[in-house]
């Protein structure tokens, strides 16, 4: 479906689009997204865009694998409250409100003003960058060039202050823990003895015969064997 929505981009000789299945994973991105990003970088692509499946409870995990986190919002659709509630505002390096055209222009500007006000009462991710709030129109293209200019400005600022390399190192550590968690979960699912014991432990917790802490210790002991 991605290439259907990106007909112009898909036709570009210097662009490559790789759909990633996100079902069954958290964070709004596919399980092998990091590997795909590394492959694209190794192939010489200097810009890698990661599109998530939408706003969700774990959607913000994508910020742990990217240099710039852009939150795209719609005007007058309740996204203002949802963005604040789900932590997108705190994590976004920039917020962009779409559909700033025609009858929606005033609503888009109003939504942008609300986000901007919210940002001023929240601590930014970096002391060297305050997240801007812009409006744009995917229909007409108005404002998109300004978005790109802000992205480049962010990169320049982060490299100058050292935050760019710091974030890259943090991403590697986060990746390590993600792989570790995935492998532990895989072992819990694949080992029939452990899987059966986990089911028994779940039932004991649900019936009040075992506390969650004791249950966790029991399962951890199984993994240590």
From TrEMBL:
Kindly give the Pfam families that the UniProt entry links to this protein.
MeaB
Q: Which GO terms describe its molecular function?
A: GTP binding; GTPase activity
- Membrane-spanning parts: none
Looking up InterPro entries in the UniProt record yields: GTPase_ArgK, P-loop_NTPase
**Could you give one GO CC term from the UniProt record?**
cytoplasm
Entry's family note = Belongs to the SIMIBI class G3E GTPase family. ArgK/MeaB subfamily.
Q: Know the name of this protein?
A: Methylmalonyl Co-A mutase-associated GTPase MeaB
Q: Which organism is it from?
A: Candidatus Afipia apatlaquensis
What broad taxonomic lineage does this protein's source fall under?
A: Bacteria, Pseudomonadati, Pseudomonadota, Alphaproteobacteria, Hyphomicrobiales
């Amino acid at each position: 479906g991605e290439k259907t929505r990106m007909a112009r981009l898909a036709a570009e000789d210097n662009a490559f689009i790789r759909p990633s299945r996100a079902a069954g994973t958290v964070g709004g991105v596919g399980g092998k997204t990091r590997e795909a990003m590394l492959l694209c970088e190794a192939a010489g692509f200097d810009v890698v865009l990661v599109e998530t499946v939408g706003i969700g409870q774990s959607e913000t995990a994508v910020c742990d694998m990217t240099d710039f986190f852009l939150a795209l919002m719609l005007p007058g659709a309740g996204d203002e409250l949802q963005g604040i509630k789900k932590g997108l505002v705190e994590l976004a390096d920039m917020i962009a409100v779409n559909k700033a055209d025609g009858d929606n222009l005033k609503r888009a500007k109003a939504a942008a003003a609300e986000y901007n006000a919210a940002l001023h009462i929240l601590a930014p991710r970096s002391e060297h960058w305050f997240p801007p709030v812009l409006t744009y129109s995917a229909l007409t293209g108005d404002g998109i060039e300004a978005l790109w200019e802000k992205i480049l400005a962010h990169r320049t600022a982060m490299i100058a202050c050292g935050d760019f390399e710091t974030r890259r190192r943090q991403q590697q550590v986060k990746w390590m823990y993600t792989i570790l968690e995935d492998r532990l979960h895989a072992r819990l699912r694949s080992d029939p003895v452990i899987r059966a014991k986990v089911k028994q432990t779940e039932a004991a917790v649900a019936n009040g015969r075992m506390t969650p802490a004791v249950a966790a210790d029991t399962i951890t002991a199984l993994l240590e064997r």
